[in-house]
UniProtKB/TrEMBL annotation:
Protein name: Cytochrome c
Keywords: Electron transport, Heme, Iron, Metal-binding, Signal, Transport
Signal peptide range: 1-24
Superkingdom of this protein's organism: Bacteria
Organism: Polynucleobacter paneuropaeus
SUPFAM superfamilies, alphabetized: Cytochrome c
Cytochrome c domain mapped to chain residues: 24-111
Length: 120
């Protein structure tokens, strides 16, 4: 059972790496451009310990400092319906691949002392 779980984790990590690499090859993001595109994100993701209550109670993660490729891939998965949160799916549905890459770079550049968005 443990070997099976380890194999699944390794496979998942490998697929995630491939997805990040594929995203990076297609579009180059810009943190500066992303700064003008995150206005809707901050409504939930900048509130410490925020919990969304539709359709279920869901802890909204702080995404500052997260890997840019991960954010872009996650947004793409929401857009395609592979991830199921309805609000995120609606927001991601309005984003282009360039928007997703820019937003990913913006949040990847954030640290706890970032003056751009101190409430990541």
């Amino acid at each position: 059972m443990k070997k099976h779980l380890i194999s699944q984790l390794a496979l998942s990590a490998g697929l995630a790496f491939i997805a990040f690499a594929a995203q990076a090859d297609d579009v180059q993001g810009s943190a500066k451009a992303g700064a003008g595109k995150v206005w809707l994100c901050t409504g939930c993701h900048s509130i410490p310990d925020y919990r969304a209550d539709y359709p279920l109670v869901y802890r909204v993660p702080m995404i500052g400092g997260q890997n840019a490729g991960y954010i872009a891939v996650a947004l793409s998965e929401y857009k395609k319906g592979e991830r199921k949160h309805p609000t995120m799916r609606a927001i991601a549905g309005s984003l282009s691949d360039q928007d997703m890459a820019d937003i990913g770079e913006y949040y990847a550049a954030q640290t706890s002392s970032s003056p751009i968005n101190p409430l990541k």
